[in-house]
Design brief:
The protein is built from two helices and two strands, in the order H-E-E-H. It is an alpha+beta fold.
Length: 87
Amino acid sequence: MDKELLKKAREIEDKIHELKKKLERLKIYASPSSSLKIEVNQYYGDMGRSFTNREEFKGDIADLLFTVIVKNLEVQIALLEKQLENL
């Protein structure tokens, strides 16, 4: 395996590890229906300003959003693992 492939494999492996760690932390004792907070940072370079949009969800919609986030992380991890395997 040449150095470029090895470097690419290491980058993919690092991403997988990071996502798995974040997923694990998200799922520990999760109770999203009581409160799921989403924060999105925005930066407008031409105006030199930044904003943070925050929303809180509760109940069924919070559970649904949490499930979507978890499932998407799991899919991303699987894709990265397949990509690593194909190297």
